[in-house]
Design a protein that fits this description.
The protein is of the alpha/beta class and about 260 residues long. The chain has 8 helices and 11 strands. The mean pLDDT is about 95. The structure holds zinc ion (ZN).
Length: about 260
């Protein structure tokens, strides 16, 4: 759990935005939809209050009809502000050693493709045309083989962490996360002050600042800190926000010039 925020923890971010020569674009990705529905909708209420966009990464195997109906309503009511896309298939680790990965080197392309396709079918069946052609691999990790399968299956965007080596797969844009709301350093959760500094450091006029959330672990204290952050991002004259699809299109346009 994050310590209660000090009043000025967001000052470094405010100063960085004040000093920015041009607007800074933020985007928000919330992972593991299918788990902890109550906390998911609490987070979505908060985003609605500030009118900020959010991309939801849904675990196909964990999505049931009841949650699907609720999501469908939320997405349509939001007028494109809330969108949904695929987060792996079952969110299980298939690696025998090393870091956790659902779409890692332990899995041949055919297995990966089978899972991605099954997941896509399930989301389409339950959510229909609302699903965006974006893929977020669990634990932000996958292989070049995954990227090839995604293009074959008509996905347009891959979203991982900015530290991942770009896969440079033709036809697949990459829109990466820069900050993890739940980040740890040497096993200790960043304090609000450290987080405010980290935010200020990634403020950039050329790269969108993607922030990743896991609603399942956002408790009340965190919720208040997040409310403060969204308040700054919704109100600052140098802060903009966009969804992942729009940013992928911008990236494609930028490459074409
Ligand atoms: Zn996940």
């Amino acid at each position: 759990m994050m310590a209660p925020p000090a009043r000025d923890w967001l000052d470094p971010l405010r100063r960085a935005l004040d000093a920015s020569p041009a607007p800074v674009t933020f985007f928000f990705r919330d992972d593991d939809v299918g788990w902890s529905d109550d906390r998911l909708f609490t987070l979505l209420d908060l985003f609605a209050r500030y009118g900020l966009p959010i991309d939801l990464a849904v675990i196909p195997a964990e999505l049931g009809p009841a949650l699907a109906r609720r999501l469908e309503r939320t997405v349509s009511d939001s007028g494109d502000r809330v969108t949904v896309h695929q987060h792996g298939f079952a969110h299980v680790n298939h690696e025998h050693e090393g870091r956790k990965c659902e779409f890692g080197h332990a899995r041949p392309g055919l297995d990966q493709r089978g899972d991605i396709e099954r997941g896509r079918q399930r989301l389409r069946h339950l959510l229909g045309p609302l699903v965006r052609p974006i893929f977020t691999p669990p634990w932000n990790r996958c292989t070049a083989e995954t990227a090839r399968c995604l293009v074959d299956l008509d996905f347009r965007v891959l979203s991982r962490d900015v530290s991942a080596v770009p896969l440079n797969q033709a036809g697949l844009a990459e829109v990466s996360i820069r900050l993890d709301w739940h980040a740890h350093r040497r096993g200790v959760r960043l304090s609000p002050n450290e987080w405010g500094e980290a935010l200020a450091r990634v403020v950039s006029t050329t790269e969108p600042v993607g922030i990743m959330f896991h609603h399942a672990v956002i408790d009340e204290a965190e919720h208040e800190a997040l409310r403060q952050l969204l308040g700054v991002l919704a109100g600052h004259h140098h802060a903009r926000s966009a969804g992942i699809m729009a940013l992928a299109r911008d990236e494609a346009v930028g490459k074409a010039h």
